[in-house]
Amino acid sequence: MSLSTTSSLLANDNSHTSEDLYITKNDYEVFQSIRNKLKLVQRHIGYGNFNVISFDSMLSISRRASNIEEFTKSEIDFLEFIFYYNPATHGFFGDRISKNITDTIDKKLITKIPRTGHYLFKGHAEKTYYEMIKDVGDSLTLTSGIRSIVKQTKLFLDKINSTNGNITQAAISLAPPAFTYHSIGDFDVGKKGFGYANFTSKFANTDEFRKIQQLKYVDVRYTINNKDGVRYEPWHITTI
Ligand SMILES: [Zn+2]
């Protein structure tokens, strides 16, 4: 597995220019094959279960399900690379949250939030969420909760696909698999019926967000010009 740049990488360069990191042509087929298998695994176990699935369960489903080919050695190598590489080389400066690609989520510690397809950790995160619903109103909903390493990998690879292979660009709007706070408790909220706009700056103009800003117990993790190199995310709630 290798990655390419069109010219040398500048460690602190945050702009999206010719220094951006891309998926190589050689890896393109492996990249697309993994995306397809992840989609099939998700379809096999369902959207909700896929949010919290471990790497080993993903592999075992690919072996058992008759409509899914087992992950190949080069696909697993690619997945390991994307988990263990250092994204600071392309301007993502967040903390590494997950240590091992095989880390699992303890099902006893989580709870499914009805009608959302998402999970939250029992205790602080769950309590914060329901407090917010009470204070903001029923028009607020959970748009993304706990994400396992596999789930974050799927989102990251899909994002890279939508940026035509540009990893630097993808990481500005979605953390690489080991770097998401969603795996340890952070969650995203949105306005019911607002759809994809919930994940754009439009959310900052909603009444729901205006009310959230008045809540003393709520912090938004990715503020404007945050040190992690992540875009402004008014919908992403800090729980750690
Ligand atoms: Zn988020």
Tally the beta strands: 8
**Number of helical segments?**
8
Present as ligands are: zinc ion
Share of helical residues? 25-40%
Shape by Cα distribution: globular
Describe the largest sheet. Answer: 4 strands, antiparallel
Order of helices and strands, N to C? Answer: EEHHHHEEHEHHEHEE
**Cα-based radius of gyration, to the nearest Å:** 18 Å
Write down the domain tally.
2
Q: Give the DSSP E fraction (strand runs of 2 or more residues).
A: 5-15%
Poorly predicted regions = 5-16
The residue-averaged pLDDT reads: 92
The largest beta-sheet arranges its strands as 5-6-8-7
Structural class: alpha+beta
Cα end-to-end separation: 34 Å
Written account of the structure:
By secondary structure, this protein is an alpha+beta fold. The chain folds into two domains: 1-104 and 149-179, no CATH class; 106-145 and 186-240, no CATH class. Helix content is 35%, strand content 13%. A four-stranded antiparallel β-sheet has the order 5-6-8-7, with helices on one face. It has a two-stranded antiparallel sheet with strand order 1-2. A hairpin with a 4-residue loop joins strand 3 (110-113) and strand 4 (118-121). Helix 1 (28-45) packs across helix 4 (73-84), helix 1 (28-45) packs across helix 6 (149-162) and helix 6 (149-162) packs across helix 7. Residues 144, 182, 186, 188, 236 line the site of zinc ion (ZN).
